[in-house]
Amino acid sequence: MSALVGNTFLYFQLGNSETISDDTRHTIYLVLGGFSVAGLLSFVLLKPNETPLDECEIDEQSAWQPIKDGMRFAVSPNMGLLYGAFIFTGLSLNFWSSVYIVIIGNVFPKRNYLALAGICVGIGQVSSGFVWSVLTYKIGRKGVLMCTTLVYCIALTLVYLAFPSDAATTAEVRAQGVPIIASNIYLSLFIALLIGLGDGGFNVTIYATLGQLWEETPAPAFAVFKFVQGMLATVAFLYCGVLLLPYQLLILALTCVTGSFCFLILDYKCARQAEYEELPDRRDLDRRDVSGNNQFYEELEQPLLQGDG
To answer: Distance of alpha carbon 146 from its chain centroid, rounded?
Structure first.
């Protein structure tokens, strides 16, 4: 939602100009920075904890417990299978928030196209929660994940075809490379919509999975997810200005497919475990077999004893 609202403000501020004046730049920084500070200060208005401090059992062990829980979750087998999806979401976060905007700015002269691309990404992310949630009831979580992977890979393919290879690394001048197909703003906005839809679908799937697997203790699981996502977004930000666009797209495609494959393995593993837990205990089955056999022999011997009598 922030991408949608913030870029709508940018669209009206930038207008149809091909350059961004100092006054416009200052206005954008002041307004967006003011909203950021207001958001941080809003935490002060939250209702404080009514439990007195002397009633809280605070010691060194309890203070370190969240860190220990996070480390324990980080090395668990199930969390390890989710690392592929975590890594992809971090790389994708950097791609749609910085790389794709730079590509639009280096290919098209009008500055308000930057805001339009951000608006389309925001629309895709907002609508992804509704679209993928509805499809989950029809095709299941595995089907949604495969559709999300397909949508994102289609978006990456269109980016490769529609933009030159130096579109993400050009600093001062327009991109000089020649794309495979002619670039146009309508195709670029459609790609932005697909990127937002695919990225939002991955995040919705991860949120649902973490909430289901660690229902009783979700905080450490989400902490590990956000830590890995933030670290990979930082790494991607460091190389996005020097690595040519095709190589960045290749990294995104490989991590997207790998993350989906690891997620499917985890889903299969959890399904098998759930089926195993639903089976009755083996010892109970053995006891039922023994008692059933004893009852059979008793019924068989009863007529024989009556005949002998």
So the answer is: 14
